[in-house]
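Appendix C reproduces, verbatim, an entry submitted by the partner laboratory led by Prof. M.T., so that reviewers can inspect both the input and the predicted structure.
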Amino acid sequence: MINKHSSDSENKEASMSRKTKIYFLVLAVGIGLIAGSLYYKNDKGPNPTADNSDSPAEVGVDDKKGEASQNYLEGTLNNSDNLSLGNFKLISSLGEVYLKTTRDFSKLIGLQVIVLINGTMEKFELIDIQSKVAGDSYILPQ
């Protein structure tokens, strides 16, 4: 009987040892996955200057008077005088900014507009061009 009791005790210890090993293995794999995910997330962070196939836009800056990291540009939208730089030209306090896009903003030519961007003045993604609102109404061309 003593032998039987001691063999049960040994099996219990071996079983606990195996369960503990499996627990630590699962824990180590989980920690490794979390660490790998954090490393990958930091390495492949969001790139605001990446090309987006949904809204292609290219930028050419003719005159750089300042590089402000804002989310919009203000100015007057005109047709471009140099189609190799872009099909629209924004004349703003920062200078002339050429915009190349496949979207049709021709109804905004000659208007004061706000150009919503994502990125820097060097290279950015064009989000939208909207006419500038004055009070509760839109500014109309004169």
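Residues 57-138 form one domain. Additional entries are available on request from the coordinating office.
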